[in-house]
Design brief:
The structure holds two protein chains of two kinds. Chain A is of the alpha+beta class. Chain A contains 24 helices and 21 strands. Chain A has five domains: 138 residues, Up-down Bundle (Four Helix Bundle (Hemerythrin (Met), subunit A)); 165 residues, Histidine kinase CheA-like, P2 response regulator-binding domain (Alpha-Beta Plaits); 54 residues; 179 residues, Heat Shock Protein 90 (2-Layer Sandwich), CATH 3.30.565.10; 140 residues, OB fold (Dihydrolipoamide Acetyltransferase, E2P). Helix content of chain A is 48%, strand content 21%. About 3% of the residues of chain A have low confidence. Chain B is mainly beta. Chain B has a single domain, classed as CheA-289, Domain 4 (OB fold (Dihydrolipoamide Acetyltransferase, E2P), Beta Barrel). Helix content of chain B is 8%, strand content 47%. Chain B is built from three helices and eleven strands, in the order βββββαββββββαα. Chain B has a six-stranded mixed sheet, with no helix packed on it. In chain B, strands 3-6-7-5-4 form a five-stranded mixed sheet. In chain B, strand 4 and strand 5 form a beta hairpin. The longest helix of chain B has 5 residues. The N terminus and C terminus of chain B are likely disordered. The chains are: A alpha+beta, B mainly beta. At the A-B interface, helix 14, strand 20 and strand 21 of A face strand 4, strand 5 and helix 3 of B.
């Protein structure tokens, strides 16, 4: 009977390695000479093989071994990195993935495919010819790599810098030299003041101080000499590379203070022995060294120690793997804490006890910190998602006979894990569309005078509390006229209806809309963009299209940073509370009866010369009652336009923990959720984008049918 | 309640009233019964959607059973309560509240005490009912709560509202 081993740790790691492998391979395709990349591929394969065998995935290990063997040759320079090699390795990567899936209960992996890949890989190896001959040309590149790498490794230099007393006379300021050294790397300076005379005897025009500098730098010794180039004659300079000696070799032990002092010749062994117990102090007492020397030596020890510590931490705990449901429950708990804290604040305010209020404030501060920290744990960089598309673009463009280059930027942008998880499918749709409909075939591009290689740019940037993700292609662009014609054909528009270019672009989001002449297995079925739009709106985001005919199309997704907690503005209408997302709010102004009268029943207001339309929450939501004499308009930016929302009262900022309303309110799209207030009541969170869109649609309908 | 030697096939029901009529819900569906608290109305929803309440930190929708069954609305009283139900919707259990005039008791009904609902003369859609129970000469309407609270049923009218 087999012992049940939890293999999930392996499979999870393996999946991660596989995606890393894919990235490396694609990068390698762009720069096949990069030894570092080849090694990375090799290492990933090697790890999969090793841990696969350990966890009983023998088939995976065996298969991976074959691939690894070939890549080992590539690493040694026996065979060059070619496109067939990369193609095969990518196929092998998919095969490993399939094997893992099969082990997890998925469909069995195709053994014939595996054999084919192995045969292909074996065909690449020059073994039969005898590897010796072909080793020669590639070897130098491997060797050339080594010394340059060593130069990039940071080293610690000890610089003893003792200027002549007259150095000031030449106009040299030693401090500037020290600053220059600081620019070279991490720098620690200890002043050596033993030559400093008593105050009465001190000549201010003389320099009595010397310095010992411990510099951790990637640059060589020459760079340090360059700093002192003009003063070399006027001072004593002694530069020594510290860590090239045995220090780095026996990394575990840092040199003892006494040893350092001895080596530096500051004391002799007898003195050291006499004073061995509390070392630094004894030495000073015995007059063997000055306190400065001890200090310098201590600093030296510290610098080396720190460097080693840094190395160690980098090797060990850079990340902790935590199941995401644990994180989710943490976020839920923090959400509840935030709610409770709002309640505590309110209660403390009502009771009016000073001590209690102080505590409430402290709790508020802690809660806010805890919230930010928890949210940041859930933040992931988007580059993993981006990297997946490199493969998609590569495979799809080959399939469609197009040449397309994918450029990504802003991969380090962080987004909530939930958002990232749900972003994948919409982005796949958009990019597929760009590849299929956007970028033209190479001959068409050449005919248009464009670079035959198409370009798709995927970028992410922060913008306030949102992240903008843009997919730009340099393809054919959208044809507003054709879209309009298609819209009429589909019955979305009446034949005599004139629409703006922007409205025409919006048509691509209508369900069942496709202008593709023929349906490919990539896209053109018209079930793409409406789904994309729905899922983006499900994430409380928005989607926008701009396009120039013949130049290309840009699709911009605007997404919130997080789905769990937002900063909101709490407002009140006739005793009912609503929350507006604070990120969109620009200002609040008063709306008096006078203003209303002046507009002759039109819902617009003049704010510092700008005409701003507004929506009355009271009438929009059919809340009865009479408005107060002076109402408040919360002016927000919605779809790049300024729009006001009229409420009775603006209560203030509110930490809003978003709770979904659930499916039963799926048609109440004007609300993105609800939140719990300090008093235990519930306030609805307004989705301003949708509300404005609905109001626009309704008004157009009303005007059309008088 | 009155007999402890439960027959396996018998089921316990919670009964509640709307006006003078008595309704029953399978007790397995009920999480708890709350006193009436402030309900936040969600604008532009059908009238029977009372709104949402805060149930210990979660937002729970509440349906006014009177309005759902086409009865006249009524002033809230001390007996008005919210029955918190666990409804099986498409892909999981959803917690919802039902506003009732008052809650009466938990009772047991044997299968032979339950009859299929008549198709006509009920002033209530028969697909809302699982059956009719009898107790001391009175009828008890046993509700198919999953049906009444299904997504289709609750959101069908929302666009029109």
């Amino acid at each position: 009977m087999n012992v049940e081993i939890d293999t999930s740790a392996f499979t999870e790691e393996a999946y991660e390695l596989l995606s890393e492998l894919e990235d490396s391979l694609l990068e390698l395709e762009a720069s096949p000479q990069d030894q570092e990349l080849i090694s990375r591929v090799f290492r990933a394969m090697h790890t999969i093989k090793g841990s696969g065998a350990m966890f009983g995935f023998d088939a995976v290990a065996e298969f991976t071994h074959e691939v690894e063997t070939v890549f080992d040759m590539a690493r040694n320079g026996t065979i060059p990195v070619t496109k067939p090699l990369i193609d095969l390795t990518l196929a092998a990567r998919d095969q490993i993935r399939a094997m893992l899936d099969a082990a997890a209960g998925g469909e069995p992996a195709d053994q014939a495919n595996a054999n084919r890949i192995i045969a292909g890989l074996r065909g690449l190896s020059p073994e039969k010819k005898g590897g010796g001959g072909s080793t020669a040309p590639a070897a130098p590149s491997g060797k050339a790599q080594a010394p340059s790498q060593a130069a990039n490794e940071p080293h610690i230099f000890r610089i003893r810098f003792a200027p002549n007393p007259e150095i000031f006379a030449t106009g040299t300021n030693p401090l500037l030299l020290l600053n220059e050294l600081r620019e070279l790397g991490e720098c620690r300076v200890v002043a050596n003041t033993e030559k400093l005379p008593d105050f009465e005897e001190l000549d201010p025009e003389q320099c009595y101080t010397g310095w010992e500098i411990f510099l951790t730098t990637e640059l060589g010794e020459n760079a340090i000499h360059d700093v002192f180039i003009f003063v070399e004659d006027e001072c004593d300079i002694n530069i020594r590379l510290l860590d090239r000696d045995q220090v780095m070799r026996d990394q575990e032990t840092t040199k003892k203070l006494g040893q350092i002092l001895l080596e530096r010749g500051d004391i002799n062994p007898n003195e050291l022995e006499k004073a061995l117990m509390p070392l630094g102090d004894r030495l000073v007492q015995a007059g063997a060294v000055t306190p400065d020397k001890v200090r310098a030596a201590l600093t030296e020890q510290q610098v080396i120690q720190e460097k080693q510590d840094k190395k160690k931490t980098a090797e060990t705990a850079t990340s902790v793997r935590v199941p995401s449901d644990k994180l989710d429950s943490l976020v839920d708990l923090v959400g509840e804490l935030v709610t409770m804290q709002a309640r505590l604040n309110q209660t403390a305010g009502t009771i009016g006890d000073h001590t209690l209020q102080l505590i409430a404030e402290e709790v508020e501060r802690l809660t806010a910190e805890l919230r930010d920290n928890t949210m940041s744990i859930r933040m992931l960089t988007i580059d993993t998602t981006f990297n997946k598309f490199k493969r998609l673009v590569r495979d799809l463009s080959t399939e469609l006979g197009k040449e397309i280059e994918l450029i990504t930027s802003g991969g380090e942008t962080e987004l909530d894990k939930t958002v990232i998880d749900q972003l994948n499918d919409p982005l796949v749709h958009i990019i597929r569309n760009s590849i299929d409909h956007g970028v033209e075939a190479p001959d068409v591009r050449r005919a248009c005078g464009k670079n035959p290689v198409g370009k798709i740019t995927l970028s992410a940037i922060h913008s306030g509390a949102s992240v903008l993700i843009r997919v730009t292609d340099d393809g054919a662009g959208l044809d507003a006229q054709r879209l309009r014609a298609k819209g009429i054909e589909k019955g979305l528009l009446s034949p005599d209806e004139e629409i703006s270019e922007k409205e025409a672009f919006q048509l691509i989001f209508a369900a069942g809309f496709s202008t593709a002449a023929k349906i490919t297995n990539v896209s053109g079925r018209g079930v793409g963009m409406d789904v994309v739009r729905r899922s983006i709106e499900g994430l409380r985001g928005s989607i926008d299209v701009t396009s120039t005919l013949g130049k290309g199309t840009t699709i911009t997704l605007k997404l919130p940073l997080t789905l769990a907690i937002i900063e909101g503005l709490l407002v009140m209408v006739e005793g009912e509370y609503f929350v507006l997302p604070l990120a969109a709010v620009e200002e609040c102004v008063e709306l008096s009866r006078d203003d209303v009268d002046k507009a002759h029943g039109r819902h617009v207001i003049n704010v510092r010369g700008e005409i701003i339309p507004y929506i009355r929450i009271r009438s929009r939501f059919e809340i009865g009652g009479t408005p107060p004499d002076i109402e408040q308009i919360v002016i927000s930016e919605v779809d790049e336009k300024r729009i006001g929302f009229v409420v009775d009262k603006v209560v203030g900022q509110h930490q809003t923990v978003i709770k979904t309303l659930g499916k039963n309110f799926q048609h109440s799209e004007e609300f993105s959720g609800a939140t719990i207030l300090g008093n235990g009541g519930v306030a609805l969170i307004l989705d301003l984008n949708k509300m404005v869109r609905y109001v626009e649609e309704e008004e157009i309908r009303e005007l059309d049918s008088p | 309640m009155n007999e402890k030697n439960t027959v396996t096939s018998s089921t316990q029901y919670l009964t509640f009233t709307l006006g003078s009529e008595v309704f029953a819900v399978d007790i397995a569906k009920i999480r708890e019964v709350l006193e009436y608290t402030l309900v936040t109305k969600v604008p532009r929803t059908p009238g029977f959607m009372c709104g949402v309440i805060n149930l210990r930190g979660s937002v729970v929708p509440v349906v006014d059973m009177r309005l759902k069954f086409g009865m006249e609305p009524r002033e809230k009283s001390v007996n008005t309560c919210i029955i918190i139900l666990e409804i099986a919707q498409d892909d999981g259990v959803v917690v919802m509240g039902a506003l009732a005039d008052s809650v009466r008791e938990v009772m047991e009904l044997e299968p032979d005490q339950i009859e299929p609902p008549p198709k006509i003369g009920m002033r209530l859609r028969s697909d809302f009912l699982k059956g009719m129970g009898k107790q001391e000469g009175r009828f008890i309407m046993i509700l198919d709560i999953d049906r009444i609270f299904s997504v289709d049923e609750l959101s069908s009218l929302q666009n029109a509202a």
